[in-house]
Amino acid sequence: MVWIRKMVSVVTLVLFISSLASTGSAKVLHEGWYKIIVGGVHSGFLVQRYEFDPSQKKYTGTYFIKISVLGGNSTESLKAEANDKLAPIAYQYTSKTDKETKTIDAVFKMGAMTADMVVNGKQTKITNKLEKGVFLSTFLVYLMMQNKNGLKVGNNYQYKAIAEEDGIITDGESYISGTEKQGDKEYFKVLNTFKKAKFVSLLDMTGNIILTRSPVDSLETRLSPRAEAVGNYELNEKSLKLLFGDVPSDKETPTGLATATTPVKAKEPRVTSTTLKSDIPKGISVPPGKGLPQQNEVELKPPPGNTKTLPPKTENETAEPTPTPAQSE
User: Fold this and answer.
1) What pLDDT, on a 0 to 100 scale, did the predictor assign at position 132?
2) pTM of the predicted structure, to 2 decimals
3) Mean pLDDT in residue range 135-156
4) DSSP string computed for 243-307
5) What residues does each domain of the chain span?
6) Is residue 302's pLDDT more than 90?
7) How far, in Å, CA of 21 to CA of 33, rounded?
8) Which of 23, 127, 204, 239 lies at 20 to 30 Å from 216 by C-alpha?
9) Buried b (16+ CB within 10 A) or exposed e, 285-306
């Protein structure tokens, strides 16, 4: 399920993946648990963490997903690394469905990607020459935040990113169309297109993803307390500790989010002068680098790609059926 992976797996290679586990010097930028809802029904959970290690000048993004739908059960995990400019270093990806087990081990050197992909025991070599500015899709929000305009209503970010689940470089677009209120707070509303899948995400002022949804397919993930996100699904803490280094907390969970079945009227302003009522600064914008490591740790520069202001799109423009997950934030 592409949209869950962005903003977005049984850990069959978790012992190998754990070699990239976090160190004590890494700063946690964001971590949280997400409840996955399909057709109004609790269908699984996602747990993720983003870190920055100033001593190594390295970002790490890690997630684990477990989902159960009519098509069967699936799990997925990712451990990805990028340098302080968010250029790819390496990633390890694992997914398992009732019919398929897949692993990808990728490294990046001198502008090229080399990866070993194994699907049901059959090995394939992947090699890709990288254009300047290509990055791992899991780090999209951090590249948006490093843009010279920061986060701002009307910004349209077009990019090329590597889809970690297949190693393919794909065009994408993220457009900050307006804001949406959840509980007593307002969040940036982002219309996303990636791998022909269209979905909506809500971001707080530090770029943390609070919610994602695919309107036509009634698919949604929302930041939740751990107990609510997991529900009655089995949780293997030992595997999580091997993948993450420990078990991520849920302390960043906001309160008052609407339930999955509650209609929420979104605001789609054409101007950027609206004053928000909570975290987001006046002007509906976040300065570049806000919420990222301080500039004495990382030299923040605008990422490659195009940013431009376009007329607002509507949520219906994102309402295209998304692929059923082949596993598999």
Assistant:
1) 92
2) 0.74
3) 90
4) HHSSPPP-TT--S-PPPTTS--PPB--SSS-PPPSSSSPTTTEE-TTTTSPPTTTS---PPSSEE
5) 2-318
6) no
7) 18
8) 204
9) bbebbebbbeeeebebeebebe
